[in-house]
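Need a sequence for this fold. Nothing fancy.
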């Protein structure tokens, strides 16, 4: 098998690999190199070929091709495959949808199943539309039903307690049909940022609702138990489509949620409809699935599909002339083969999921590095030429992927549900029910050193935290190359670029450079939507994309975006208005202004307090952290470190005294964690799957583990930015979820 010694991972990518992907021994020490990771994945996935009669030589050849496309950073599979292929856990898929039935047994079966999926590293989507509305009579007990939103809290709490593969909490998508009687409660359920911290939410909007909205009419609410109009006191209940739409718009304007999924369109374009019905998506909105189905994803790095060097006379009049179409076709074929093999090599968390997944054999091949491709081709993201190229690239990837899936069907057989699909009705052999999906690619785009999904750049330069607690400047390499080549690069310029997300107004940068290095803040909402819509034309599943708004955007701007997304054929839409979440945090607390100016009052310590002591391994020895609580909240902290010398013990005591004073003054555990987490020291070690940077960092980790739901890390913001719970850097909202460009953490 061929291998590459010089895989072009960036320093940031290597940091993320070390933190999340590489194998460790029982002491937490990394025992795998990035090259060995890719070899492990390539060989394990290639082994599936043996089930179709491949020889040892053929399997080795396949493994070589798989390694080549990953080693060149031309294609990467989703994170669970990179993490788990060839290892004991063995769960390789990213996306799952579970049904939630209208009984206690069915509800808690779904809770159990979601916990197993989260433990294995996957994310889950749920449609709560089958649950009877709040205040309905429960026949078996003559009690009163609490409704879907109440049960969502159970799912949220379960997710809070289970870490994905031992690394982070899981992610969920909650969906409710717009005609469910509890739809208004659902729309507003995330007004309090402390609620549903492990959920994204979307309203499943029907074509009939959109027609009622267009015509200015009311629409009936439907009782999910009977599929008939919902009645109260013998009267059928109707809502104004315009008023409900206004509620969706208002809450999305305030907090970025709910999103909208156009559920009828998703089903019409689902290849197995009407035999199977899609009712929910994965946490980022790009993978609609029927109950118990799953999908494994992978993305092609379009930035590496550009011919280099471009001719001097290259210009925007020939936008596809610089694309290496032959290389792109070869990578698509290899990627489809890879993803189909994943289905056979996967170790599924539930037998029902394995059965359903193998019925349809859905794969989700997408793209990343779109913004990089445009810069290399000197095309502005929002130009007509860029939209034209998106249409060409999307169609090419779709066509090549379907052709290779059809070829695989001739040698391996069609997917078992083929006869119940559009392909069976048309007589087209296909190995996979779906082949294309455009995912967010938050972490794998860091590994590939490219832009995320089909998004524009979030920023051209930013500061990131590194392991020792210092901060380094991260500059878009294409921008740095051009800036140096044209002679306008300087440290002063870079710091100015960091201070503002857009290059607009920076006179030192030539206009032709500013025109191609557009950021999300420079793209109008309509241009964002048009980019999403053109890729959606060529995507079997759906597209993960964030429609960004300036903080000054109005509710009418958001309303127009939702309507435009529907009109242009999108399957869903997610919006985010800059700094909307900080506003919502302040609004939800509703503290009077004079309260904010009060001096802190240090509470007296009662004679008796209870708490717990936790042992944490640090580079200085075992640290014993005691946290005493009052009314369920942390009140004081003590810590003792053995055999470490007087200085370390004195410093530890000083830190704990200050933490205790802060807690007794009413400062939240979250604010304390944000200050201490990631502080570096001279003796850093891995303990229990996490890096312990220092004694302050160890104490912060204990506080976060036990009081995470009480911290600002679950939704509070600082200076308009969501704070990463792993490295305390500012996160960005990208493709439907918050992700950290510094360490690769993602909420999805």
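Here you go.
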């Amino acid at each position: 098998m061929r291998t590459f010694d010089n895989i072009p991972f960036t320093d940031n990518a290597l940091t993320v690999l070390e933190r999340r992907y590489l194998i460790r021994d029982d002491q937490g020490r990394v025992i795998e190199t990035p090259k060995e990771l890719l070899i492990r994945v390539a060989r394990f996935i290639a082994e599936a070929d043996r089930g179709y009669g491949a020889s040892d030589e053929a399997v080795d050849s396949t493994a070589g091709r798989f390694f080549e496309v990953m080693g060149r950073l031309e294609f990467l599979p989703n994170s669970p495959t990179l993490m788990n292929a060839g290892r004991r856990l063995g769960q390789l898929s990213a996306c799952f949808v579970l049904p939630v039935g209208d009984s206690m047994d069915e509800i808690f079966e779904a809770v159990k199943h979601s916990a197993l999926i989260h433990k294995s590293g996957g994310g889950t989507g749920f449609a709560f539309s089958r649950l009877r509305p709040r205040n309905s009579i429960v026949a078996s007990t003559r009690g009163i039903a609490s409704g879907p939103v109440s049960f969502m809290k159970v799912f949220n709490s379960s997710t809070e307690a289970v870490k994905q593969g031992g690394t982070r909490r899981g992610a969920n998508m909650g969906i409710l049909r717009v005609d469910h009687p509890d739809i208004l409660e659902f729309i507003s359920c995330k007004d309090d940022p402390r609620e549903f911290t492990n959920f994204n939410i979307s309203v499943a909007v029907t074509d009939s609702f959109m027609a009622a909205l267009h015509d200015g009419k009311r629409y009936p609410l439907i009782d999910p138990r009977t599929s008939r109009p919902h009645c109260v006191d013998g009267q059928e209940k109707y809502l104004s489509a315009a008023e409900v739409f206004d509620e969706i718009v208002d809450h999305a304007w305030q907090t970025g949620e709910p999103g909208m999924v156009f559920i009828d369109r998703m089903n019409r374009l689902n290849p197995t409809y009407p035999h199977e019905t899609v009712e929910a998506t994965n946490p980022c909105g790009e993978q609609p699935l029927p109950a118990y189905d799953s999908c494994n994803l992978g993305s092609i790095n379009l930035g590496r599909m550009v011919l280099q060097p471009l001719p001097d006379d290259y210009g925007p009049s020939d936008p596809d002339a610089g694309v290496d179409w032959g290389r792109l076709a070869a990578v698509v074929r290899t990627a489809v083969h890879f993803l189909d093999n994943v289905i056979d090599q996967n170790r599924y968390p539930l037998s029902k999921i394995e059965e359903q997944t193998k019925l349809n054999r859905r794969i989700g091949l997408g793209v990343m590095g779109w913004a990089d491709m445009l810069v290399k081709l000197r095309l502005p993201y929002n130009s007509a030429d860029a939209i034209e190229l998106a249409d060409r690239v999307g169609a090419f990837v779709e066509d090549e992927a379907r052709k290779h899936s059809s070829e695989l069907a001739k040698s391996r057989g069609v997917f078992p549900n083929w006869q119940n699909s559009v392909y069976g009705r048309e007589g087209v052999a296909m190995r996979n029910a779906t082949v294309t999906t455009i995912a967010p690619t938050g972490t794998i785009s860091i590994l590939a050193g490219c832009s995320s999904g089909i998004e524009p750049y979030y920023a051209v330069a930013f500061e990131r935290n590194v392991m020792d607690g210092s901060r380094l400047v991260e500059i878009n390499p294409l921008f740095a190359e051009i800036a140096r080549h044209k002679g306008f690069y300087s440290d002063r310029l870079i710091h100015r670029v960091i201070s503002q997300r857009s290059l607009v107004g920076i006179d030192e940068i030539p206009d032709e450079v500013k025109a191609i290095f557009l950021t999300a803040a420079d793209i109008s909402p309509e241009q964002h939507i048009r980019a999403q819509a053109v890729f959606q034309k060529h995507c079997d599943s759906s597209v993960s994309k964030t429609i960004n708004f300036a903080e000054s955007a109005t509710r009418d701007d958001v309303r127009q975006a939702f309507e435009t997304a529907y009109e242009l054929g999108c399957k869903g839409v997610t919006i985010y208005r800059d700094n909307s979440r900080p506003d919502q945090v302040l609004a939800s607390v509703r503290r009077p202004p004079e309260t904010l100016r009060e001096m802190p009052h240090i509470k007296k310590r009662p004679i008796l307090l209870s708490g717990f002591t936790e042992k944490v391994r640090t580079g200085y020895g075992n640290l014993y952290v005691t946290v005493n609580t009052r009314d369920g909240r942390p009140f004081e902290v003590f810590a003792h470190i053995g055999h470490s010398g007087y200085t370390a013990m004195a410093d530890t005591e000083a830190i704990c005294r200050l933490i205790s004073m802060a807690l007794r003054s009413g400062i939240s555990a979250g604010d304390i964690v944000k200050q201490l987490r990631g502080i570096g020291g001279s003796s850093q070690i891995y303990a229990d799957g996490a890096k312990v940077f220092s004694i302050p960092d160890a104490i912060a980790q204990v506080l976060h583990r036990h009081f995470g739901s009480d911290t600002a890390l679950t939704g509070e913001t600082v200076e308009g930015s969501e704070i990463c719970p792993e490295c305390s850097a500012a996160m960005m909202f990208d493709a439907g979820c918050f992700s950290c460009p510094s360490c690769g953490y993602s909420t999805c």
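For context: The radius of gyration is 26 Å.
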